[in-house]
Design brief:
The complex is a heterodimer of chains A (471) and B (298).
Chain A lengths: L19 H14 L6 H11 L7 H12 L3 H26 L4 H4 L8 H14 L2 H17 L7 H11 L22 H23 L10 H4 L5 H21 L15 H8 L20 E7 L5 H17 L3 E6 L3 E3 L1 H6 L3 H11 L11 H11 L8 E6 L11 H10 L2 E6 L13 H5 L4 E4 L3 H11 L8
Helix pairs in contact in A: 1-4, 2-3, 6-7, 7-9, 8-9, 11-13, 11-19, 16-17
Chain B lengths: L9 H10 L6 H13 L3 E4 L6 H12 L2 E6 L6 H4 L1 E3 L1 H10 L5 H8 L5 E3 L1 H7 L4 E6 L6 H13 L1 E4 L3 E4 L5 E6 L7 H5 L2 E4 L5 H11 L5 H16 L8 H14 L6 H7 L7 H10 L14
Parallel strand pairs in B: 1-8, 1-9, 2-5, 5-8
Antiparallel strand pairs in B: 3-4, 6-7
Classes of the chains: A alpha/beta (471), B alpha/beta (298).
Chain lengths: 471, 298
Amino acid sequence: MSPTPASPYGPKAEAGPPGLAAKLLGFCEELRGEGVAVGTSEILDAFAALEQVPWTSRDDFREALAATIAKSQDDRRLFELLFERWFFRATEAEAVERGADEGGQRHEGAERLDIDALRKRVREAIVAGRDGEMSDLARLAIAAFGRQGEGSGVVGVDVQRIRRTLGLSAGAQPSAEDGAAELPPIDREQLNRFERHLRRELERDLIERTATLPPSRPLAELDRALPTSPTQDLAAVHRAVSQMKRRLATLGHEQRGRRKGQTVDVRRTMRASLETGGVPLRLRYRPKRPRRPEIYVLCDVSTSVTSASVFFLSVLHALHDSFRKLRSFVFIERISEVTEVFEHERDFRTIAQRISSEGGVADVSGYTDYGRVWLEFLSEISDDLDPRSTVIVLGDARTNGREPHAEVFARVAERAGRLFWLNPEPKLYWNYGDSVMAAYERHCDGAFECWTTRHLENFVNVVAGGVPAGD
Amino acid sequence: MDEALTPGSVAETKDALARAGYLADESAALVSFLAQRLGKPVLVEGPAGVGKTELAKALHRASGRELIRLQCYEGLDEAKALYEWNYRKQLLKIQADGEAGWEEVHDDIFDKEFLLERPLMQAIASPDPVVLLVDEIDKTDQEFEAMLLELLSDFQITIPELGRVAATTMPIVVLTSNNSRELTEALKRRCLYLWLDYPELEREMEIVRLHAPELPETLARRLVEVVQMVRALDLKKPPSIAESIDWARTLLLMGAEDIDRETFEQSMSVIVKHRTDIDLVAERVGVKLAGAPTQTPG
């Protein structure tokens, strides 16, 4: 093997000395490359843990490593992906080096199985979730498939072809035609597991044929991203919002009215008096309970923010879960209160539907009219605003050429304790075209770009006086 | 560390936990084993009600060690978690020794005698090995976490007036977190990490059967299937394992023989505890069960 260039953590282990330690270090190096924070102390822990468990059990080995190295659920996911890949590559590299060839016996038994029997057994193994059997059957399937001479040579394509040939699909299974017992359903996760086995066996075949390893690549962005589904995104938004809740609740509370209306904490006063021989010279006060924030959220749902409004609605949705004193409004040309809808509906889709059908916020044109929205908000709601209230505006500040009425907005800002603006457009686009962000930004306590949960978290951090998360 | 108390293998740990009434999966057993062998704290994360706290209790039962629990909450401070000077007693001492000079009293009142030990201090000072459970660490603030670091890495606490108090025996430390905020790297670095998730069907069935042994197997299976169906919905609060067990006991009390639509609607409130969730579950899951719908009054 050719010498590999030095890396900041020392030589690459793949080409380095043989032995488990080197392989493990290489693995940690690879994890670091993918952004998992693996410190020296973690590596030391890993070795200490491996002294305690038998290495012969693959599961124990993996769990021991995971418990010491991957310290969050995200890290754990990356760990799983890389563990599979790294140790698979490591064994294959070893095999190539030694010129081991077990191709002869590998597909033994394939001739004895026809496709139908194979189909049945694969299905059983998938439903039962037996890994060993799945990987054996994957080999058989590849062999059977190979005999039909349809291999494309591209692993990803072959995996899907074999899956179709075996008639596997996720979800409820079509009932068998011959009136046989109904097939148990296969869920997506189980099927993915079988596909992983298939992929791995195909790769192994390829390596055997070519006697070289394909170059190792960093994980694709697609693999790294969390498996996305609307509920999952919603969960992330909920997490960020519940963080925001805690921070808004305690924010600014330390400075406000420290001495006013406080009660003396007898216990702590007495404790403090010990310094002065039992004479209570200094009074200690009971800490004030955090005040309940009142939040007003105004959310733009016009067409110019269509892509962002689903996100905004989910933010609203999450806010409603966390705050009891929350009033939400949607606006386009006019403003309309939707607090009720959120309080009575749980399902996010229903909420979105109800808001669009009965919000009654579009008058004629369907273009946002910020000026009019402020006027309406000020005349109808602002009497309820007081210094304890926080107003959050979610919108792009695109007035479609209409009067922005920034002075009205300023009065809203004056009445409210705090006012934040979350804009779904990148800062670069602010104040271009019909965006009048600058006119409004002056009156806000803060204006932020916000179209992902990361931005939302950033907003929470800044509001809480912390440092913004790095990009 | 007392060798007699530490298990020899992962399987042994698993058996011991099972005898203590906790069916651990592979990773939970392995991490518990490592925690005892390496003397490292364990950070357990996962959704509410998957048995994070229960794991610590099971470790306490399995190892015969005493359990010391620190329940965290917002605003928890050192005085409640570590130690506090017993000022009443100190005042008495000052008054009782009225004649004695200040110098003598001063040395006297900061003595172990006047120290009120809070859970963390108790765990360190205990002559017998203990299991220390720091529950819901994510509820505290970062400052408190930082304070824990000395304890977690060196098993010692520094009291300005007394000096360093180091553990004589190695406690098993279990920290649980509901993941409501990200814990600091420094804390994570010192811990072994265990993610507990809702169990798979078979294991949950075993757990239910362990806690409600009179429940027939078919009914237990049906129950767990329904619970997992309910969990798959997007609920405010998905049913936890504890709730499955409660439901199993409820069904026993009701004398139910099968979970049909009627039984389900009557006892659903045991596993679903939000009004909006109840509607959703009744709509999505209730209809899948056999039996005529009941007439709900009102």
